[in-house]
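Agenda item 2: zinc ion complex prediction
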Amino acid sequence: MATEVTPSTGKPEDRVKIFDTTLRDGEQSPGISLNAAEKLEIAQQLSRLGVDVIEAGFPITSPGDFEAVQTIAREVQGPVICALARSSFQDIDAAWNAIKDSERPRIHTFLATSDLHIKYKLQTTREDVKGQVKAAVAHAKSYTDDVEYSPEDGSRSDIDFMAEVIQIAIDEGATTINVPDTTGYAIPEEYAAMFAGLYERVPDLHNVTVSVHCHDDLGLAVANSFAGVMAGCRQVEGAINGIGERAGNTSLEEFIMLLRTRNEAIGGLWTGANTQEIARTSRLVSRMTGYPVQPNKAIIGRNAFAHEAGIHQDGVLKNPQTYEIMEASTVGVTGNNLVLGKHSGRHALQNALQDLGYEISGERLNHAFKAFKEIADRKKEVNAMDLEAIVNDEMRDDSKAWSFDEFELHSASTGQPTATVKMTNPAGEQVEGKGSGNGTIEALFDAINDVVGLKPVLNEYRVQSVTSGPDSIGEVSVIIEIDGREASGQGVATDTVWASGRAYARALTNAERRRGVVSEAESAAKAAVNNPVAP
Ligand code: KIV
Ligand code: ZN
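Presented output:
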């Protein structure tokens, strides 16, 4: 019987820890590049969601990522703050320096154990891998008690060899062992059997936290993670909205709701997540990353709780349980009654934002208030979803970024649309540009290209409305490509042209940031390859 279980608590041994890697593996998705302020914003929301561990980044890869991890370590209380490192001392030192101010720091070090990776990627031997893992875990342990080790490509590794390496990591003091399905190749029975085999070969695994980390290449990430916890693992790694390398990671919102909704059927496994924060976390991640959520996505898609067929609507009206296995309110999809209008003052806005969980004052409140007034002038009522969209947009750190300041469009039923735009470049100078195109948005983007002197390929352009009604705020997401690399951007406004200009300007800024990050990361990777063994 499909009933919901409340509250979601249970025996301590059945508690599954949620390890969120939205800001590390998730941020590795093509086109995503978050700065420190954006990452902090997401980390604070993850803390409200009640995740146990936040993997905040991979500090050696760029000064920007180091800064973001450090900021999160200093400012976010509650969850363990984790940083990723390869096995080199350089990586581990950078990880430690970034997280050492956290109340609960964790170093996560990884080195592949599959022969494929050892031979072709690492170009080394099994013996060398054992030595590197021993040195890496011992070095990490000299900084903090909380050390996680992952045998990368674990699901395709020779189990006897991987067990030997895991034993070494545990002997050196690793407290969490995470066995990833790095390529998303495993099937649930196989992944569960691998854990059973590991518990048999390494009885010490019963004294540490065993973790799953699954990729979604075959659409099995949640199923494999679930198989892992049924086999005894008690930490699940994943990302909000399932973002991550290639097809992404385990969708944490799906996994959390699976454990909550089917709690009885699965022997009482539970998580400490505050499920009512799920929808908001998902929207924030989508906005900050510019990655929209597909309408039919489980739990968080706009249609996840909608009923289209008449026969379903009829059933739900008679008894919601006929077609609903979860209540929308459990994941925070509710009709919040909060409404402001154009006469509402700064104080009312601040209170409304507080009700929504945002503590905003000073300059940030001024910005939010200005944006709120602009929207309230065009829209009779501003509700909670609108406010959240405005605040998320205004809180973006657009310093050192292209800003989209003014536009003029000319469009008629005959002739080509034309556009002129004024923008401010990252150095603070105003620049004007002109453009034309087959449609108004193409003309607008052409004028922006004229300003920035680039001709990106537009791979994706999407508009959706934040709420319903003709005066709803429009939310635009774009993905552009420059020199084979993608960059995403997102913007909101009552006028979709404004939202489009903002989204495009942010994508350009991300592309520039990303090019900087990629070249820094490439030189860091080269340095680590030249020095792969801990000194
Ligand atoms: O997919 C993977 O193997 C990883 C490791 C770094 C844990 O992301
Ligand atoms: Zn991964």
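Discussion summary: The longest strand covers residues 457-465.
Owner for follow-up: CH.
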